[in-house]
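Entry 14. Structure prediction run on the chain below.
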Amino acid sequence: MERRSKLRNKPLKVMIIEDDPSMVSLLTTLLNMEGFSVRTPKNNRMEGLLSSIFDHHPQIALVDVNLSMGSGLDLVREIRREPELKATSILMVSGLNLKKECIQAGADDFIQKPFMPDELIKLIHKTIQRSIELNRKEEE
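Output returned:
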């Protein structure tokens, strides 16, 4: 059963921005099994990551805080400066408890590694739903 967007009746689009190939593989498998449409950027440079988000306009981006090519926090700040990406929710991930720093950078939520798959799925849905509700309120 696919998770469908209430707005478009299409699978919810998730972009995984993570530099650990095994983590990308695990997350991709999990999210595909849950019916999400999953993308991972092909370009491993910071500027390429932002371009990938522009190209695919995911409903949510899972962004690791510590990327080998730069700071996930800096990437989130860049995303938040782009009006076209306002509707993209951001869920940040780290092995350290950096929730406060992530929220201050512009993330919608944070999950600490290691996490249980159900916990991640629930948080993705909660984060997307919250974003949809905020966008509706701003449009009124």
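The two ends are 33 Å apart (CA to CA).
Filed with the rest of this week's runs.
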